[in-house]
## 1
Amino acid sequence: MSLLLSKLLAGFVIGAGAIIPGLSGGILAVSMGLYQPTIEAVTGFFKAPKKNFRFLFPLGVGGIIGLVVFMFLIKHTFAKYQTEVIALFLGLVVGSIPSFFKEANDGKPFNKTNLIFAFLGFAFAFSLVLLDSFTGEAQTASRELTPMLSALAGAIIMMGIVLPGVSTSFILINLNIYDSFLNTFTNFFSDPGRNIVLALFAGIGVLVVAVPMLFLVRKVLLKYHCQSFYFLFGVLLATLAGCVIKEIQRNSGGIAPIRIVILIVLLALGVVASFFMDKATQKLKLRQEASAN
């Protein structure tokens, strides 16, 4: 697999995670070793514009494709196969844990103190899972999407990418704009004039949140690298636990044996795919492309 194709695929996975209920685009970026390199490339873009553009462009294109494709899938077929899709994505995350620890320790000996930060990260993210469990089903009719609400939705999507563990779908669902946001893009040509305006406002929301948050996160990662990544590891574990709990609740009536086998196979495929994506994307090389000048 070429480096370009692997970046497109990685972007696709991150974009999909940004809109799939229960997942976080940011935590998928972390699990694939692309979180910090992407932040470095964006915040230091004008230091090496050509190099950073080559790094970011395929990720951005893949992310947009993943976001749009899964908007259509969620709208039309996701409800029937949600557990299967979640199993595959969880496999991607689980398979990345060994390389995640290498990144977290950054060549330094293991420090037990960092487990405190992992616990804090888990507590933070799992509190969101519990909040989702208590409030996720209490929904009223979907609100009509206005330009300001579209900008808010764009800001929330970017927040879910910049802050790993924050589930974009959870927030949008509880604001009752998840369905109307999906409808804007899945039925784009039903009212193109209005939907173009809504899409532009969503882009504005993305930019407003992205710039200050990316610079802030970069400072934290540079100053507290190990602590930050162990915190993110706790968030990652809570995300995994939250997805499992949510799917158990969704399938409380029981799962057929053949479906259990399929879920295990999909989980294993995700783990294997994560391993090969790790090799294909050449994490060390990606980090050098994003930060070297």
Note: The mean pLDDT is 80.
## 2
Amino acid sequence: MSTELLITSVLLGIGLAMDAFSVSVANGLADSGMKAGRMFSIAGTFAGFQFMMPMIGWLLVTEAARLFTWFSPLIPWIALVLLLIIGGGLLKDGIEELRASKAGGDVAEDKEPSDAAKLGFGALMMQGVATSIDALSVGFTTAAYNTMQALVSSLIIGVVTLFICLAGLRIGRRLGELLAGRASILGGLILIGIGLEIWIKGVFF
């Protein structure tokens, strides 16, 4: 493996993982009691999507070039809709919890995280797609790679994403302990903000 391929792939991984990192922080905020196994599950999901998307783009680079040109403008809209749905649900749940807390006194410290905070399989898949769909374009920029080079590059991107997302989850979990019941609200706002940021960059820049 050439040094150039390694450096390029690592830099691509860092750039592509930033949205997943922010979402990981939001997930950690929503569930400050998240266990290590759950953290690896979430980070591994994001890493898996970041691995698959460049490979899919590379595999389809010749046959789907015309289709991708048509599909490309839809990418920021898809990410926006998915993150608005997830973030909106988390925000709604957080507001309801905050109201319930004010009405009924302090929330018990051992209270289980809400359904939104637990992040079900479907929501996690939506997050994975929303934060990795722009990585499809990476496959088109690596069209000159052979099969092994494309596979190694995508694998490096996935590994970089894994570690970055684990760091994001730990940061979010620590902040969640400090923010208590307001964590879900902040996490929802972060997700909505990420969706808007992806949409603005994709549509206007």
Note: DSSP finds nine helices and no strands in the chain.
